[in-house]
């Protein structure tokens, strides 16, 4: 495997992804019942999403640690982020759920943030060669 030696942009993007994913995972897993009525989304669904985000956040946190992330793992994380954005768009347009306006804004905002993480990770990976 090829180790990445540059740290700046890639490590920052991975750390931000880890922090946001971990916070989102905990918020959804613990606060699903409180969030559900405001978002117009099922509490069980939110809780499951939160629990499923925990291992992802752990992987990103593990990858972000020094000295150098493995290129293949970063590519996997980027792929997961792109899949998350696409799934978020599909979720909103599928009619599978009927989120409130706040729920729609929540899904869109997190999709934009995840897309930004993916873009920063791609840029960081390109800078590493």
Quick description:
Keywords: Membrane, Transmembrane, Transmembrane helix. The protein is an all-alpha fold and 129 residues long. The chain is built from four helices and no strands.
Would you give an account of this structure?
This protein has about 130 residues and is mainly alpha-helical. It has one domain (about 10-125). The protein is built from four helices and no strands. It has helices spanning about 10-40, 45-65, 70-95, 100-125. Helix 1 (about 10-40) packs antiparallel against helix 2 (about 45-65). The longest helix has about 30 residues, at about 10-40. The model has no long low-confidence stretch (mean pLDDT about 95).
Give short descriptive properties of this protein:
mainly alpha; transmembrane helix; 129 residues; elongated; 81% helix; 4 helices; transmembrane
* Most strands sheet: none
The amount of beta strand, in percent, is under 5%
Total DSSP E strands: 0
Q: Overall pLDDT, averaged? A: 93
Total domain count = 1
Structural class: mainly alpha
Shape: elongated
Number of helices: 4
**Rg on CA atoms, Å:** 16 Å
Which spans of ≥5 residues are poorly predicted at pLDDT below 50?
none
| Share of residues in helices | over 70%
Distance between the termini: 14 Å
SSE pattern, N- to C-terminal: HHHH
């Amino acid at each position: 495997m090829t180790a990445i030696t540059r740290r700046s942009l890639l490590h920052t993007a991975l750390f931000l992804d880890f922090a946001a994913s971990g916070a989102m995972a905990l918020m959804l897993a613990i606060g699903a019942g409180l969030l559900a009525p405001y978002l117009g989304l099922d509490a069980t669904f939110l809780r499951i999403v939160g629990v499923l985000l925990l291992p992802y956040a752990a992987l990103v946190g593990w990858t972000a640690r020094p000295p150098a992330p493995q290129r293949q793992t970063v590519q996997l994380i980027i792929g997961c982020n792109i899949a998350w954005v696409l799934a978020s768009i599909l979720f909103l347009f599928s009619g599978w759920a009927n989120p409130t306006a706040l729920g729609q804004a929540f899904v869109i905002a997190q999709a934009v943030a995840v897309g930004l993480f993916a873009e920063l990770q791609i840029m960081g990976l390109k800078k590493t060669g």
